[in-house]
Amino acid sequence: MLPLQLFGPGGVLDQLVAGAGRFVAQAITFLLTAAVVYVVGRIVVLPLVSRALRARNVEPTLAKPARKATLALVVFAAFAVAFAVAGFGNLLTSLATIAAALTLAIGFASQDIIGNLVSGVFLISDPKLKIGDWVEWDGNAGVIEDISFRVSRVRTFNNELITVPNSELANTAVTNPVAKDTLRIPFTFGVGYDDDLDHAKAVIVEEAEQHDEILDEPAPSVRVTELADSYVGIQSRFWVEDPARSDFVRVKSEYVQAVKERCDAEAIDMPYPYSELTGSIEVERVGATPAND
Prior knowledge:
This is Mechanosensitive ion channel family protein. This protein is an alpha+beta fold.
């Protein structure tokens, strides 16, 4: 057996120093290459992608994830090129094997996250659901501010920010009141049983026709829809144009107030439920002495 040489040319210490020097040189090359590729990608590739998206009038719902995906590709390309230039071929192969094993393990442990990612892809690609839309689901309502690959963010009308897992929106019936060019709004008025229903229906329709922001075509309509305990329900159905831009909540409020004031002026009763107690109460004094004759 040859003696182990620690010092001198070709010794173990010399080999360690040479190996460490090569690793430091490779590490510096790796960092410089990754930095250069990343900076070039941020300066050149991202602006090109942004201009291409604007030129094609891509909706913000698709544009924001596209920019994020482009940045992720730039980072991936920076590391891949840096590994190749620095000569870390064997290290890259080992890292790929480790990454594959980690991906498999994480996949089993993170099924909900993967489900949200898949749901996010479907939401982003859905042209009927986009940033700026008013949505309603499971008793919640608000305006979509952002759709990412894992979660969506919805701003409520109380200016609260809700972070919603994408799987919840993808697997739930979502209402979009402003998706179409027109929107029909129903409202039920209650009038008294002794009132003239035809007169009340005429008043409700006339007030709808007099409002500038309620459409004449389709025309407003009314129907008797219920016989409640204290009133007869008359449902008014009217249409507004461009609900995404118009304040149809204000239109509804103004219309309901106008009908109420008109009914008051024409003595049309709008009763409210109340309870009436009947009978008598006898009070007996305990321990009272009967009066003497």
